[in-house]
Design brief:
alpha/beta, Fumarate Reductase Iron-sulfur Protein, Chain B, domain 2, five-stranded parallel sheet
């Protein structure tokens, strides 16, 4: 819950008042929004180097001047982790970048990550007052990334202020964004936090799901190291429900458990030919490349290297998959999506980057069959042509088949990226959890507490698939609720 009195007091600090006098708002509005420097598309489409290059100090200082320092900052209402956006931006404007980074860490455990992958255009930036003035919103995400990167590169990485240790042990299941955000806040409250991760690397979907050309692993590692400096402990290669049980956690003295195990079970369409060699899920494809290094010559992790590759879906995972295929040598990399481009859930920036890298968009098409060769390897896909009908429950226009209109396209690899479901292991081994028909854990929406009083849950295990920042927001909400319950 945003403390409006606290924000008002901060806004009235002398340095903020002086800063507002340096430029009138009508002058701030006329400053053009900064453009993010990027790698050349032809080069980057064959490289794993990060595409976005970040802002220079001069660019960041200029962009920060665009912030109007509103008395009622609507941008904060659009941020799931409630970052004090005006304060961190105003610190950049006065060239106090380390203070800006410190402000970010008051509420965000992963500022360098969020600055890269958070859909700011749909959240904080969509609430920016500039839009009411017919101007482009302040580039909040770019500035967040800049402040976090500046701090890291300066070597002066700060650790948030921690409460005195209370000795109470808390377990976190899963080291993705929800688990890391929860762990960070509980450490600030003074708890003894241990995160249990099933894989050999910490980071969850940040490591296995997002390619390094969008989110370099060393950026994630710096954020994790900061949590370790705060006292958070990590145990890898530990599957809760197999390696260790709910009863084991109780016996070891854990007084609270936060389930943040994500949704790693891929969805398929159940159409003919999905069992052919060369047809795989985006989860498997991206995990083999991002986490297991299948794109590097020195590793022995196998992966398909298709020349004509189709990715089924229109979300960020589909964009990550198709751009990965392009970097692995695909001559023809295609997005096959049953709706039009306007209905795509992927970030606009991801679609833009994909187009620049030569990705083909086959919108208003839906696979109905995969056809194999004599060796059982996919060689073609049959597509049903679609048109848009009336809006469905999501508000997007529903795709409708055009009877009798189909097309057959040559492919030698298909990656299905149409969503994920929670792995049933946790829900089946934690006795007493209430689970939906989709396998998601049912929680109190205000506290994220499950039917088991000491167990809370958040992120994709509750939502069934969402953004990094929404998962982080869940982590913060659950931490605040658990802390209050344990205090009482």
């Amino acid at each position: 819950m945003i403390n409006t009195e606290y924000l008002k007091a901060q806004r009235n600090e002398p340095w903020r008042e002086e800063l507002r006098k340096t430029l009138k708002n009508k002058e701030r509005v006329t400053i053009p929004r900064v453009k993010m420097p990027e790698l050349d598309a032809a080069y980057r489409s064959r490289s794993y180097d990060e595409v976005n290059l970040g802002l220079s100090l001069e660019q960041a200082l200029t962009e920060a001047k665009r912030c109007l320092d509103c008395p009622d900052p609507s941008c904060m209402a659009g941020c799931p982790v409630e970052i004090n956006i005006p304060k961190f931006i105003k610190n950049i404007e006065r060239n106090k970048i380390l203070e800006a980074a410190k402000t970010l860490k008051e509420t965000s455990a992963l500022p360098a990550v969020c600055g890269r992958v958070c859909p700011q255009e749909k959240q904080c930036e969509s609430q920016c007052m500039h839009l009411k003035m017919k101007s482009e919103p302040v580039a909040i995400g770019y500035l967040e990334r800049f402040a976090a990167d500046f701090e890291r590169e300066s070597g002066s990485i700060s650790v948030p202020e921690l409460a005195v240790s209370n000795g109470i042990k808390i377990a976190v299941i899963g080291s993705g964004p929800a688990g890391l955000s929860f762990a960070g806040d509980m450490a600030k409250f003074g708890y003894d936090v241990t995160v249990f991760e099933a894989l050999h690397e910490i980071g969850g979907v940040l490591k296995y799901g997002i390619p390094e050309f969008r989110l370099p692993n060393d950026i994630v590692d710096v954020e994790i190291n900061n949590l370790q400096k705060m006292g958070v402990k990590f145990i890898t290669n530990c599957i809760v429900g197999k390696t260790i049980s709910q009863e084991d956690l109780h016996k070891e003295g854990y007084k609270g458990i936060f389930i943040a195990s994500g949704a790693g079970l891929p969805n398929f369409m159940n159409i003919p030919g999905e069992n052919l060699a060369g047809v795989l899920s985006s989860n498997e494809y991206l995990t083999r490349v991002n986490l297991m290094g299948a794109n590097r010559e020195e590793t022995d992790t196998p992966v398909f290297f298709g020349k004509n590759v189709a990715i089924i879906g229109g979300g960020n995972t589909a964009m990550d998959s198709v751009r990965t295929a392009r970097r692995l040598g695909a001559e023809k990399a295609m997005i096959v999506y049953r709706r039009s481009e306007e209905e795509m859930p992927a970030r606009l920036e991801e679609v833009k980057h994909a187009k620049e890298e030569g990705i083909i968009f086959m919108n208003l098409n839906n696979p109905i069959q995969y056809i194999g060769d004599e060796k059982g390897k996919v060689k073609q896909m049959a597509l049903q042509k679609m048109k848009l009908g009336e809006p469905d429950a999501s508000g997007r226009r529903k795709p409708v088949e055009i009877p009798g209109v189909t097309e057959t396209v040559d492919v030698d690899m298909v990656v299905v990226a149409i969503g994920v479901s929670p792995n049933p292991l946790i829900s089946s081994t934690f006795s007493g959890l209430n689970v939906s028909k989709w396998g998601t854990i049912i929680v109190n929406q205000d506290t994220l507490q499950t039917d088991l009083p000491e167990v809370y849950a958040g992120g994709d295990i509750v939502r069934g698939g969402a953004t990094v920042i929404l998962a982080m927001g869940d982590g913060r909400k659950a931490a605040a609720a658990m802390h209050e319950a344990l205090e009482n």
